[in-house]
Amino acid sequence: MKAPDPPTARIVLLDDDPFMLKLLTHMLAQLGYTRVVACGSGPEALKQVRGTDEIVDLIFLDINMPGMDGVEFIRRLVECQYGGSVILVSGENSRILDSVEKLIEAHRLIALGCLQKPVKPDELASLMSTLKPNIGKRSVTRASLHSYGVEQFRAAISQGELVNHYQPKVALATGKVVGMECLVRWQHSVDGLIFPDQFLGLAEEHGLLTQVTGIVLVEAMKQAKAWDRAGYHLPVAVNISMDDLIALDFPDMAEALAASVGIDPQMLTLELTEGQVMRQLSTVLDVLSRLSLKRFRLSIDDFGTGHSSLAQLRDLPFDELKVDRGFVHGAATDGTRAALCSASLRMAHQLRMQVVGEGIEDQDDWNFLSQLGCDVGQGYFIARPMPAADVIDWMRIWGERTGVTRLLSA
């Protein structure tokens, strides 16, 4: 979606400091933004948002104000179904700003970024360059734009419309491609490529997740074998569901699939999230222990976002730990994220686990994890998920790119 031109973008400033309102108004005018309304209180700003004549594209929000503070104002924005963006402006410490930014995202509002007081013109200009127009009321989420019924999904399964895409995993020390994570998609005959957040809930509700896992697993195994025959040793990681973890026959099913395809189970990494493994623990321990005995590799995904993480690492036979994107992206300039990344990596290495850093989105993320000694990286800076047919061409381009950008010397 194209960013609105400065003359058309409507901006609301909310701060109880009159000087700050004047300063921001002047700085925005220097950038060409003149449709700016300055408000000294939350109720005054809400009147601008609730107005039906003109849509607000962006709100600058001071979180520490008398009366209605910034956190309460965000709650009111949700009630208004606000569809524009929010920039936090505050003198509070970065940890408070991070928490409020996460709150904005949790409410499915658009957090454009944070500005520390005193605001620097270059930082303001950088954030404004990413502004998108107000999309209107946010009562309709992406997942509800298309509603699919269970019979449609059953038909998709029977007609082979579930397809695997693959996101590369690379060794940070050498840049070598060391594997692929498999991510399921629905190739709809009319709507095109549908992402899992629009159908996995449906599959879970109707008891179809184990069937989906079976389809994804067998196709991933076949693809890994095809790559191996072509001279590319690319182990594949597959996400498994809670339904799989509580099915006592799942290890036997996975072993039988590997045997039928003719692939070593060690070529497969089965990924599960923290939140899954503490439910029905005795059954999960049974299933994971047997998978490990059958030589499937096990990975704990989104590490640090759930509960009882240390107990899981103590009790369960994981080979790999994936540090969540929320701790990786931006860690180069954020002390809290850096500390969490570093602690997770040291602990995993002491437990002889491989560490994968997720969410590498720029050169700074790559450099930070490389210097930290992280084993493997994954994220959009390396590559987005792609069809299997595109992988070999991407690997050729990646080889050229690593030489040009000197990623390996980071």
Overview of the molecule:
The structure is a single chain. This protein has 410 residues and is α/β, with parallel strands linked by helices. It has two domains: 118 residues, Rossmann fold, CATH 3.40.50; 267 residues, TIM Barrel, CATH 3.20.20.450. Helices cover 42% and strands 19% of the residues. It is built from 17 helices and 15 strands. The strands form two sheets. Strands 6-7-9-10-11-12-13-14 form an eight-stranded mixed beta barrel. Helix 2 packs parallel to helix 3 and helix 8 runs parallel beside helix 10. The two termini are 34 Å apart. The C terminus is likely disordered.
Tally of distinct domains: 2
Please identify, by name, the CATH architecture of the largest domain: Alpha-Beta Barrel
Find the CATH superfamily of the largest domain: EAL domain
Query: What is the structural class?
Result: alpha/beta
Roughly what fraction of the amino acids lie in strands? 15-25%
